Amino acid sequence: MAVVIVGAGMAGVQTAVALREQGYAGTLTLLGAEAHPPYDRPPLSKDVLLGRAEHSRFEIDFDELDIRLDLGRRALSLDVEARAVKTDDGDLGYDHLVLATGAAPVALPGQPDSAFLLRTQDDALALRAALRPGARVVVVGAGWIGAEAATVARQLGCETTVVEAAASPLAGALPAEFGERTRAWYAAAGVELLTASAVSGITARAVHLTDGREIAADVVVVGIGARPDNAWLAGSGIPLDDRGAVRADARLRAGRPEVFAVGDCASFPSARYGRRLAVHHWDNALQGARVVAANLLGGEVDYDPVPYFWSEQFGHMVQVAGSIDAGAQQVARGEDTVLWLREDRLQAVLTVDKPRDLAQGRKLIEAGARLDPEKAADPATALKAATA
Ligand SMILES: Cc1cc2nc3c(=O)[nH]c(=O)nc-3n(C[C@H](O)[C@H](O)[C@H](O)COP(=O)(O)OP(=O)(O)OC[C@H]3O[C@@H](n4cnc5c(N)ncnc54)[C@H](O)[C@@H]3O)c2cc1C
């Protein structure tokens, strides 16, 4: 049997490792468009950008695991009938195929080459070289990546401004009141934050806003989101959802019994949340990979995780477990923890510098536990003791 995994990021690498761990002994090829040895992305906006680490390569002995790394080679199209991936260096046949091509960053219309994106190791090293003390840095987007990039730019002594089109930071991901709370973090770090400020263009030395303002910039970083990197699947018959993610089923199969999809490139139906989820976070790439390996080897495992992610910004650790649903009952637990309940069952928990609440909340969501909202709102009561 031959397994081909397209995409040598977290999801692809972990699928390969999990296949070996779960006993697969056949041919295993990991195809990756980037020429670098496979690496982890979260450190790119943290230690690598800061210069505390030179790289974030996975410490995995691929030879030892008999995983064939086929790097610097891009999949261009897919013929599911012939079971062949067409690449820029010939065809690659498979018996089982795993789609793990991740996501690509969104650029602003007409964005010049001089502006930086932050998705790859090359992006991080190029940006790092530009973040010199005193440089005027404008970060477009106050989402997760923008906030982390601004944190590092400031730590490196850059004059940093963040420009956000929405009324508050993290607007796409979290309720506005939480995003508003992070405004004080920007101020404390000495980062200027301009919200409700849409960019109309970027020129060599400035970022221009739609209201006519012009912000001088030596370095511009654009962090306005990422989209599933699935253009190469056009015409293949592999189902995509309305946001361009591979539409996987509950077992992460992608339209055909021998094809799977995992990580940032895929969405899946969650019975737990009663809706389709597309999760662009590290833990999803890890957990999903294990489920793909199990099902590829004949298992019947449904993928229904409690999504989890973290972000390190302005000296704070923000963590979220679960999926935040606008209609759920929101319960504040002191200053630093927010809970979302539906019929008293915990759906999601957000914490700032409160790892214990996060860990306990995550387990309670997994267990489908019911909470007593009054007890849960009291930070003096351990969350795990707040069950109804
Ligand atoms: C800077 C940064 C910081 C992050 N920080 C955090 C964090 O703090 N916490 C958190 O939870 N998550 C974080 N994330 C998100 C997390 O890293 C991603 O969710 C995770 O990398 C997804 O893994 P993946 O394998 O699905 O996709 P990717 O890591 O994007 O890997 C996909 C790989 O496929 C390759 N590829 C794409 N198309 C093709 C093709 N046609 N042929 C061959 N290869 C192809 C790409 O080159 C890429 O290497 C961060 C992401 C970034 C970019």
> What ligand species are in this complex?
flavin-adenine dinucleotide
The class by helix and strand makeup works out as alpha/beta
Fourth CATH level, the homologous superfamily of the largest domain: FAD/NAD(P)-binding domain
In the CATH hierarchy, what is the class of the largest domain? Alpha Beta
Spatial shape: globular
Low-confidence stretches: none
CATH topological fold name of the largest domain? FAD/NAD(P)-binding domain
Oligomer: single chain
The largest β sheet comes out as: 5 strands, parallel
How many structurally independent domains?
Answer: 3
Question: Cα-atom Rg, whole angstroms?
Answer: 22 Å
For the termini, the CA-CA separation is: 51 Å
Number of helices: 9
Mean pLDDT: 97
- Please list the strands of the largest sheet in the order they lie side by side: 3-2-1-7-18
Strand content: 25-35%
Number of strands: 25
Helix content: 10-25%
Architecture per CATH nomenclature, i.e. the level-2 architecture of the largest domain: 3-Layer(bba) Sandwich
Structure description:
This protein has 388 residues and is of the alpha/beta class. The protein folds into three domains: 2-104 and 227-296, FAD/NAD(P)-binding domain (3-Layer(bba) Sandwich), CATH 3.50.50; 107-222, FAD/NAD(P)-binding domain (3-Layer(bba) Sandwich); 324-385, 2-Layer Sandwich (Enolase-like, domain 1). 21% of the residues lie in helices and 29% in strands. It has nine helices and 25 strands. It has helices spanning 10-21, 47-50, 121-130, 144-155, 176-181, 183-189, 282-296, 355-367, 373-376; strands at 2-6, 27-32, 68-71, 75-79, 84-87, 90-93, 96-99, 103-105, 136-140, 159-163, 192-194, 199-203, 206-209, 214-216, 219-222, 226-228, 246-247, 259-261, 266-270, 275-277, 308-313, 316-322, 329-333, 337-342, 345-352. The strands form seven sheets. Strands 3-2-1-7-18 form a five-stranded parallel sheet, with helices on one face. Helix 2 links the parallel strand 2 (27-32) and strand 3. The relative contact order is 0.12. The structure holds flavin-adenine dinucleotide. Flavin-adenine dinucleotide (FAD) is lined by residues 6-12, 31-34, 41-42, 44-45, 74-75, 100-103, 118-119, 145, 229, 232, 263-265, 280-283, 285, 309-311. Residues 6-12, 31-34, 41-42, 44-45, 74-75, 100-103, 118-119, 145, 229, 232, 263-265, 280-283, 285, 309-311 line the site of flavin-adenine dinucleotide (FAD).
